[in-house]
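User: Sequence in, structure out. Go.
Assistant: Echoing your sequence, followed by the structure tokens.
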Amino acid sequence: MEIRKPSVLVIKSILTSLVVGTSLIASSVLLVRSTTPTQLEKVLEAGELRVLSSNGPTTYYEGSNGLTGFEYSLVKGFADSLGVNLVIEDQSNLGQMLDSVAAQQVDFAAAGLTTLESADTTLRFSTPFMQITQQLVYNSRLPMPASIKDLKGKKVLVIANSSHWARLRKLRQDFPYLQWQPLENAEMIDLLDMVNKGEADYAVIDSSAYDLNRYSYPKARLAFDVSDPQPLAWAFPAQKDTSLFDAAQKYLNSIKADGSLAKVTEEFFDRHIEEVTTGEAMAFTYRLEQRLPQWVEDMKLAADEFDLDWQLLAAISYQESHWKADARSHTGVRGLMMLTKNTAKAMGIKDRENPQQSIYGGAKYLRMLLGRLPERIEAEERLHFALAAYNQGLGHLEDARVLTERMGGNPSKWEDVRKYMPLLSKQQYYSRAKHGYMRGWEPVKFVDNVLNYYKIIAWHQQQEEFRIATTNAGSRLSANTRQTGENNRNNTPTSQETSPTVSVL
């Protein structure tokens, strides 16, 4: 069906009669909209979903492939299911966030909220998508406390005016000897850090914070739960129109049913970080001998083209994919060199899971990063910085360099930057950073691992070349010996021509 706009002549004929025109206008208004659009219809018409959140480790943050995060992944999935764009509006103040939702200034809030955040009726919470529990952590040098009774005479760190602080106050009714030290302007990661360093013996944090950071603070061990599980949910305004709320409920129930929610939760909170154990060392040796050889020639070709060491490319690809050509990550990176979609496109790579293309793209990207670093970073330092940028991007790297300089360190020395980079996982630091929250310990670990793997691969290569050289030399020696023996047999003297006896002292 062809649809045309009204012609100028038609419009002029309408305007010749005021009465007729007024009637037509009134009639057209009734025809265009006889009912008020629902909240869901407004979202669909606008083409965007506006959500309040706060930049942080469990909500949303800027990763190497754009925005990511546990709740961000869920909200983005909901927006995609509606076919609209997701617009995240940052708000770190919880009170202002909930007030904005209640006043219907945004569609809803997704910021690690429990259904207990508001006692009034201005908010409506979705079906929970996760349970968190308040937990006690302790320094591993101490005996593990089994219950609140074991904390008698001890002092526990807690964030001031938090739900954890309120929980301890309630527990004191049954355990009057319970003591704690409230910290102002602190985060749970700060408490973990203090317990890990031995600056505090005990602290109360959320289970989600412990799960996310437990490998970074190994001396902060889990003792026991201090609360019942509390459900996390999205906060909507408590209005009569529940169309958008109902759509969110349907979406959350669907990802629970099909296993998508469990998969996302596992990817963000249950990441297994492999330690250098005997088993891992054996696995590495196996992969070094069985997987790496098939990619060596491609790595050498790419290394030659971009003036790199092929063994460095081998170390990066092992850290990224364990030399698996079809490796994939929840963040969207793929292939041997784990390239993001955007990076692959920028490097001219069409198929990230093609091993040759992946190796070429990774080498080209590393060379680009080395070239884009400030000239004042000296040659021996550039590799460390480029590897950190390979892991987290140049934006986060620059944030770390700015922070290092602000803290009195040298922003062009990796040993200084690596000390301050993990601070960008704390709100007091990432709130002032251009690119926001970063899992700051990850690039530090990435650089260390790559350099360690590089050394091992180089050593193994030297041993292999020595073995080959020794084998070849042995083969030549054996051949020479056989030839000498043959010659000796042909020239063996008779009884009349006995060779002189040689005495070896």
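User: And one key feature?
Assistant: Residues 1-32, 272-277, 489-505 have pLDDT under 50 and may be disordered.
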